[in-house]
From TrEMBL:
Pfam families per record: ABC_tran (PF00005)
UniProt GO molecular function: ATP binding
Domain of life: Bacteria
Keyword annotations of the record: ATP-binding, Nucleotide-binding
Keyword Nucleotide-binding belongs to the record: yes
Protein name stated in the entry: ATP-binding cassette domain-containing protein
Gene3D superfamilies listed in its UniProt record: P-loop containing nucleotide triphosphate hydrolases
UniProt domain ABC transporter: residue ranges: 5-238
Species annotation: Paenibacillus filicis
Length: 248
């Protein structure tokens, strides 16, 4: 698999104590279609790292490359149309659902793919939605899925998903997991999921990135991470081992 994103020695300083790092020495690669769960206790900087990868925030140290080209060479909007961040708190743009679905295409100068929008809405349980409805009137879960579809319509190479199913009912959550797994397989879209739901992490990832102590402490195959975590911090983070999970 070709390397899509290369993350080299990225560090971010704490804004409340600039002599200390929120995280440092983060080095990793993301390949096309790779499915990664980004795990760790609250406040490790998982969201901050993904926002840096989407160029919505800047690192204090280190380099980011997309398809081998340094981030400084990419226009930010071109980068963001390829590496799309979906926030936990979906922000709807003014206007209707349809305006929301169309706006990102307009912003990035792409034709609006209505059949794809219809297909995504149906797949995520929004097939009966009135597209003329003001987006501000949607429920939290409807906003979250509409925001996700807005990003999917860009056909990004990487989707950075920040607790995107947090306000969804179990059925809708499953629909999102299935649809994004299908995108990763079909389109080769890399999916990075921040989640606190360990069952979800198992369903949606082949690789785990575990953040702890200001480092990207483990990068492991998902099965190996859950069955045989290599660090004490990861062992503490995971629930008590179930029968059969070997630990050193
Ligand atoms: N430079 C910084 N950039 C972002 N957050 C910072 C910074 N310095 C300190 N912080 C603090 O560190 C924490 C980082 O939050 P962030 O959302 O990135 O972590 P997280 O691991 O995603 O947490 P959660 O799992 O709760 O969403 C916040 O409490 C924030 O106030």
């Amino acid at each position: 698999m070709t390397v899509l994103l290369s993350i080299q020695q990225i560090a971010k300083r704490r804004f409340d104590a600039p002599d200390r790092y929120l995280f440092e020495q983060v080095t990793a690669e993301v390949t096309g279609g790779q499915r990664i769960a980004v795990l760790g206790v609250s406040g490790q900087g998982k969201s901050t790292l993904l926002r840096i990868l989407a160029r919505l925030d800047v690192p204090d140290e280190g380099k980011l490359l997309l398809q081998g080209t340094d981030s400084a060479t990419w226009k930010p909007e071109e980068w963001r149309s390829r590496v799309s961040y979906v926030a936990q708190q979906a922000i709807m743009l003014p206007g209707s659902v349809e305006d929301n679905l169309r706006t990102v295409s307009l912003l990035h100068g792409r034709p609006f793919d209505r059949p794809l929008a219809e297909q995504c809405m149906a797949a995520l349980g929004l097939g009966d939605m009135d597209w003329k409805k003001p987006a501000a009137e949607l429920s939290g879960g409807e906003k979250q899925r509409t925001a996700l579809i807005r990003s999917l319509l860009l056909r990004p190479q990487a989707l950075l998903l920040d607790e995107v199913t947090a306000s969804l009912d179990p059925g809708s959550k499953l629909a999102v997991e299935r649809e994004l797994n299908a995108w990763a397989r079909r389109e080769g879209t890399a999916c990075l999921w921040i989640t606190h739901d360990l069952e979800q992490a198992r369903q949606v990832s082949d690789t785990v990135w575990f953040m702890s102590g200001g480092r990207l402490l483990e990068q492991a195959d998902t099965q190996s991470f859950f069955h045989d975590p290599q660090t004490e911090a990861a062992r503490q983070f995971l629930p008590e081992p179930s029968a059969g999970r070997g630990r050193h």
